[in-house]
Amino acid sequence: MDFYRVSGAGNDFLALVEPPEAPDSSQVRAWCTRGLSLGADGLFALYRAGDGVRMDYWNSDGHPADLCLNGTRCAARLAFELGWAREETSIVTGAGRLLARPAGPGRITIELPPFPAPLREVTLELDGEMLEGIFALAGVPHFVLEVSPPLGQVDVARLGPRLRHHPVFGSPGANIDWVHTVDPHLFHIRSFERGVEAETLACGTGVLAAAAAGVLTRSARLPVTALTAGGFELTVDGLGKATPLPDRWLLTGDARILAHGTLTAEAAELPTPPCW
C-alpha cells in the first residue's frame, strides 16, 4: 500500500490516498509506533468526494478523531499536489465540511465554522491546587491554561495525562494546552494530545482553541500568531463580526509533504512487549 509522510507544523502523519479499504485500529497503531514501524502522531485516508475531498482520521492509538487541523492542512496540501483541486477545495471531516486554500509555498489556510458550543470557564482541583482555564470544543475538546513564563518549565509529561483524564471532562477527556501570552497578537503554546497520549510539536485545534480563549478573555486580538513547540508559527484570524467571537475562523500554517513510499507487511508486525 502506498503512503505519504506529511507534517503540519511538526505534527507528523501517514497519509493513504484512496486505499482499497480503510485500515483497522491495529494497523494504525502498528504503523504509527515509533522505532518499531514508520511512526507518526496519526494517520488519515484521503478520498475524492464530489467537488472536494474527504479525510478519515485516526490518532496513533488507533482510535478515530473528528478533527485534526494540522492533519487537515496536510490533507489539503496533498489534494492540491495530486491535482484534485487548484485554488480552493472543501474537505469533509468528522467535524463537518471545511474549506482549504493555498497560502503561499508550503502553507495552507483552513476556514472553519463557529465553535459548536460556547466556550466556558472551568475550575478544577489537582494536588490541592485550583486551576482555572477555558474549555473549548474545537472539533475535539480542549482545556486551555494561561501560564506565566517560562513555558519550557511546565512539566507536560507529568501533568498532561492527569489533566487529560480529569473527571471534570468526563469519559472523553480533553486535550490540554498551556499558553503564555507574549502580547495581544502573539502567544506561545505547548499541547498534550489525546490519542497520541503525549506532548506533540504542534496541535492545530489547540492553537484555535487557545486563540478563541484569548479573544474571549480579551488577552488576544485577531489576527494572532501562535509559536508552537516545533518552532513553527500558526496564525488565527476571523471573518465576520465578533460577538465576541467571529462568524468564521481562519487557521494558516505549515503543511509539508516529506516522502512517498510503500508500506510493507513488516510495517504492521510488532513484537510482544517484554513483561518487565
Key terms:
single chain, 276 residues, alpha+beta, 17-stranded mixed sheet, 4 helices, 17 strands, 16% helix
Structure description:
This protein has 276 residues and is an alpha+beta fold. The protein contains four helices and 17 strands. It has a 17-stranded mixed beta sheet that branches. Strand 14 and strand 15 (233-239) form a beta hairpin. The chain is globular, with a radius of gyration of 18 Å.
Provide the fold topology.
Layout: E1 2-8, E2 11-17, H1 25-31, E3 42-49, E4 52-59, H2 69-81, E5 89-93, E6 96-102, E7 107-112, E8 120-126, E9 129-137, E10 141-146, H3 156-164, E11 175-183, E12 186-193, E13 198-200, H4 204-217, E14 224-227, E15 233-239, E16 248-254, E17 256-262
Structural class by helix and strand composition: alpha+beta
Q: What is the average per-residue confidence, as pLDDT, rounded to a whole number?
A: 96
C-alpha end-to-end distance: 34 Å
Tally of individual helices: 4
Radius of gyration: 18 Å
Beta-strand percentage range:
35-45%
Largest sheet: 17 strands, mixed
The helix fraction, in percent, is 10-25%
The dominant shape is globular
Q: Give the topology string: H per helix, E per strand.
A: EEHEEHEEEEEEHEEEHEEEE
Uncertain segments: none
Number of strands: 17
What's the short version?
The protein is of the alpha+beta class.
